[in-house]
Amino acid sequence: MRNWSIDTTELKKDKKQYAIWRLEQMVNFGLAGEKINGQEIKKYWDILDLDRAKKSYLKMILWPK
User: Fold this and answer.
1) Cβ(55)–Cβ(48) under 8 Å?
2) Contacting residues for 64 by C-beta, under 8 A, at least 6 apart
3) CA angle at residue 35 from 41 to 16, to 5 degrees?
């Protein structure tokens, strides 16, 4: 994943905020060949600001009925 508009060196100093930002970027704007860790998504689920349709799809995959 490449993001040209954010200085990730500063963001990486806060591991939690970096993890949340990275997950949001990957889900909302594309993976660029990377894989998302399902456990990490579950860990930050309530905090993540995701596209509504994508969040519904992930919820269906991560917590099947």
Assistant:
1) yes
2) none
3) 40
Per-residue model confidence as pLDDT tens digits over 23-32: 998 898 888 8
Q: Which residues touch 24 (CB under 8 Å, ≥6 apart)?
A: 48, 49, 50
Residue holding tokens 């970027």? 25
How much is the pTM? 0.81
Q: Write 32-40 long-range contacts (CB < 8 A, 24+).
A: 32/1, 32/2, 34/1, 38/62
Q: What are phi and psi of 12, to 5 degrees?
A: -65, -15
